[in-house]
């Protein structure tokens, strides 16, 4: 017998965006129903951000043991793969209560563990429940895209959704895709002792600044990763002895075969819209996701979409920001603009690569000659020198009048140092605010202040300024 509920907000998907919407709305006193057919916490907690960073941390420990330096003898670490994976799952389990059904029911959210679909423009059904809601939020996220490579469908390939269930360490891991996921996980497995080959049809981390990517590339090669750029996968086969996989590829030197014990597919992600019956609700969508306006409303004005499925970027922190916009707009009626968000992104390889806004190439394409670029290398940073790790640089991209268009940082913990630029761009601060900041010494974070200071250097120490000083000195 079907139960019918009439509520203020119905949320489909219990990932970062959906949980943030549900928690915010419920704590404001609204009646909320949340549908989730899989694990609470979604991809980020169970298959993405959390487990991958736990694995990367283990790989970093192994790398530190091998490379020590600064007078400390290096040793070859003993990697207990089962213990590494236990750490990964222990991390998930530690964070899971924050996203749990019990917690959200404690907040007053009705959680229904079932697949949800639209029955009509304002009704969602799932399990034995029928929900009529004033507002519906689609937060179903995305999942690993699988390319149409002949033979791939016959192989036991891995994606991020299955990788962390491995009980035996891959002897030789082929990673198909040189984007952030492929680079992060490929490097981690190489450092844990697997042989890793990364196959990328274009250039690795092709969206990022080439000068910053070169720093990452050098480290991957130093780690022993076999990089195959500009190499396209043509077909896949089971190895002759059926003990692994073979990827037939075509690269700069023609066709070749790459054999491995395991294959990880990491060529990107696709929005999860299947089975929602969006057409019944009059919701326009395509391969990039659900079409939304700047207030994240779909073509059905009662329905919003947030996070990966909204097609504006695939980041957990962006999904959380979308949830905040929904609460402000749909509940408080405040004007919002999802297109105006300053969204940082980080590739958590070593060294990390963090970007916000335009890269230099994007800025020049958008603004032509009205672009200035300042570059500061970590080899000039005292903390980096003290730590014996001067890899990396910071790049500030502005208009000639000083409007910040973008910043790229590559170096150890770059993701922790992009925050100040995220604040600067979000708050539309002038560069002078950055130069006026007192940065603690010695820190890698000083690079932000140094980049801003470099922008003012030509004018500050120009002949014109020197003439003005020569006059002022007699008046002081």
TrEMBL record:
Keyword annotations: Disulfide bond, FAD, Flavoprotein, NAD, NADP, Nucleotide-binding, Oxidoreductase, Pyruvate, Redox-active center
SUPFAM superfamilies tied to this protein: FAD/NAD(P)-binding domain (SSF51905), FAD/NAD-linked reductases, dimerisation (C-terminal) domain (SSF55424)
Residue ranges occupied by any FAD/NAD(P)-binding domain in the UniProt entry: 8-323
Domain Pyridine nucleotide-disulphide oxidoreductase dimerisation: 343-447
PROSITE patterns linked to this entry: PYRIDINE_REDOX_1 (PS00076)
Binding residues for FAD: 53, 140-142, 308
Pfam families in UniProt: Pyr_redox_2 (PF07992), Pyr_redox_dim (PF02852)
Co-factor remark: Binds 1 FAD per subunit.
Disulfide-linked positions: 44-49
Record flagged with keyword Chaperone: no
Family: Belongs to the class-I pyridine nucleotide-disulfide oxidoreductase family.
Name listed for the protein in its UniProt record: Pyruvate/2-oxoglutarate dehydrogenase complex dihydrolipoamide dehydrogenase (E3) component
GO molecular function annotation: flavin adenine dinucleotide binding; NAD(P)H dehydrogenase (quinone) activity; oxidoreductase activity, acting on a sulfur group of donors, NAD(P) as acceptor
Sites where the protein binds NAD(+): 177-184, 200, 268
